[in-house]
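Re: [ENG-882] Designed sequences occasionally contain unexpected residues at chain ends

Forwarding the minimal case from QA. Structure tokens:
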């Protein structure tokens, strides 16, 4: 029989305040308070994000403990996102976690947010099979787009990345041009379901085989919309589904090109994706198809573990706890934290 090992995870790197409790790889609770305030500004406003974190953090942690049906005294350690992210947001989670761990007299564990998106694959869930090492992880979110060679839990090497915007930003900025509210990624995905992916063509930027570039795509969408709207003022409204489907098709195809390059360069055929954009139905479908088409073994996280969440932070916390990889009390948040 395994003994209980309750770890609390806390995530506050961007605009989601989240807390979760894990016990031996099984998530007992995962609470996410998404900050709606940013919608009216069309993007995350850092100062408003920090304030909302400060407001949300105590109730979110309370709720996570209550839902897990444990007392704070049952916790073995507290894991928190140290970076990368917005400094003001990270400071709230970092300071709260430090004080809570100190008060309870238990270890504090610092977690890299991007590493957590990758290690979320080790959360035990029905129908989910953990990847085997070594594997290729592609982290696709609003802040990052990277291809990582993962040799063990704590040995990761970035072998490719975006040279400008992140893929989530590309979705969100294109959506904004189309008049959709922030964050537009999920809406582009929704409208894409009803559209024709071949209706329009957008360029796929040329950079090094494992790198990405998305700023040109955003400009291409802007010029395309301006040009067509000049001819027909209702162009976007009349063609929204086709524009979204074509845009999503271009982005997904580009991501798949990069994965193919990574597979041929490393010889590794086991692929895992992570980050908010892995919620996208197009990339999910392409990865499922790749199993038969290319003979890859692909891992797609459960929907709730794709976007920012604290279960993934608690998961890394548990792995680090078992290795006694604790943070010292003078640990500081790191906006540009590397692996
Ligand atoms: O990982 P995440 O929650 O936060 C960051 O660390 O950035 O990712 C958020 C990003 C946003 O850009 C959002 O538009 C995008 O993920 N996203 C999607 C979808 N769901 C979330 N993009 C495309 N299709 C989706 N279904
Ligand atoms: Zn994220």
């Amino acid at each position: 029989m395994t003994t209980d090992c309750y770890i609390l995870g806390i995530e506050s790197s961007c605009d989601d305040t989240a807390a979760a409790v894990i016990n031996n790889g099984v998530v007992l609770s995962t609470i996410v308070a998404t900050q709606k305030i940013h919608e009216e500004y069309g993007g995350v406003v850092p100062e408003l994000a920090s304030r909302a974190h400060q407001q949300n953090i105590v109730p979110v942690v309370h709720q996570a403990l209550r839902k897990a049906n444990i007392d704070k005294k049952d916790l073995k350690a507290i894991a928190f996102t140290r970076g990368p992210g917005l400094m003001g947001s990270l400071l709230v989670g970092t300071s709260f976690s430090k004080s809570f761990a100190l008060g309870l007299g238990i270890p504090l564990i610092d977690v890299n947010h991007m590493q957590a998106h990758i290690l979320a694959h080790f959360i035990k869930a029905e129908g989910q099979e953990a990847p085997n090492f070594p594997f290729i992880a592609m982290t696709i979110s609003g802040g990052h787009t990277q291809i990582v060679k993962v040799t063990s839990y704590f040995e990761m090497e970035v072998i490719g990345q975006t040279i400008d915007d992140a893929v989530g930003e590309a979705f969100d900025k294109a959506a904004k041009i189309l008049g959709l509210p922030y964050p537009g990624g999920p809406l582009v995905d929704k409208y894409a379901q009803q559209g024709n992916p071949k209706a329009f063509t957008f360029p796929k930027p040329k950079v090094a085989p494992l790198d990405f570039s998305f700023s040109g795509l955003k400009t291409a969408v802007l010029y395309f919309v301006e040009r067509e709207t000049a001819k027909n003022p209702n162009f976007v409204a009349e063609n929204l589904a086709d524009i979204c489907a074509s845009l999503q098709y271009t982005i997904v195809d580009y991501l798949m090109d990069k994965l193919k390059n990574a597979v041929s360069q490393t010889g590794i055929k086991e692929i895992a994706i992570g980050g908010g954009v892995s919620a996208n139905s197009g990339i999910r479908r392409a990865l499922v198809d790749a199993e038969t088409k290319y003979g890859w073994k692909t891992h797609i996280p459960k929907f709730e573990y794709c976007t920012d969440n604290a279960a993934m932070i608690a998961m890394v916390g548990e792995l680090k706890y078992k290795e006694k990889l604790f943070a010292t009390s003078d640990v500081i948040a790191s906006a540009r934290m590397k692996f």
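QA comment: On inspection the terminal residues look reasonable. The CA atoms of residues 8 and 21 lie 5 Å apart. Proposing we downgrade this to a documentation issue.
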